[in-house]
Amino acid sequence: MPGVVMLMACVQVIAQPAPTPDAGLIHGFRDLAGQSLHISSQGLELLSDPRVFWLIESQELAIRIGAAVRSAEAVDKHLAILAGSKGLTKDDAAGIARLRKLAGFLKEQGESLQTYWDTGVVDHWKLSEAIGKKARKELDDLLDLNPKTGLAPPPREPRKRP
């Protein structure tokens, strides 16, 4: 009988609805996801540079590209879970959707880049570059990274103390 009681307790725990994340958790995870995707994007951008071909062994290149792709996939998986949460605002849902779109771009870019390094077919590199441009534009918009907007005012001479 103790096994049945334990099983019923487990079923009750599993059957409970997932807790609704609070706004701070949602915003914190969105920021963390954006930063993770930004790092993956930078890594893929570096690895798509033809000059890297001479610096990194093909096995290490595959490992680094794979790490960036797996990171984007993991972020997308967690964002999908978060997107299914109750209590998301429209802004939260839109932000999560944009981050998932970016994760998809990065996954595609990494796969195309790996195919290029494996086969040497230039069309795969061109596809990777085109996807990378889309990803950078989306990332710039998401994280407000465009250097042409929001520039700080020019420095001024400090005022003299009275």
Question: How many domains?
Answer: 1
Give the helices and strands as they follow along the chain.
Answer: HHHHH
Separation, N- and C-terminal Cα atoms:
84 Å
**Helix content range:** over 70%
Strand content: under 5%
Low-confidence parts lasting 5 or more residues at pLDDT below 50?
A: 1-16
Structural classification: mainly alpha
Q: What is the residue-mean pLDDT, rounded to a whole number?
A: 77
Shape: globular
The biggest beta sheet reads: none
Based on CA atoms alone, the radius of gyration comes out at 22 Å
Extended strand count:
0
Count of discrete alpha- or pi-helical segments spanning 4 or more residues = 5
Report on this model:
The chain is mostly helical and 162 residues long. The chain has one domain. Helices cover 72% and strands 0% of the residues. It has helices at 2-15, 23-47, 58-83, 90-119, 122-143.
Compact description:
This protein is an all-alpha fold. The chain has 5 helices and no strands.
Structural topology:
Elements: H1 2-15, H2 23-47, H3 58-83, H4 90-119, H5 122-143
Helix pairs in contact: 2-3, 2-4, 2-5, 3-4, 4-5
Key descriptive features of the protein:
single chain, 162 residues, mainly alpha, 5 helices, 72% helix, globular, disordered N terminus
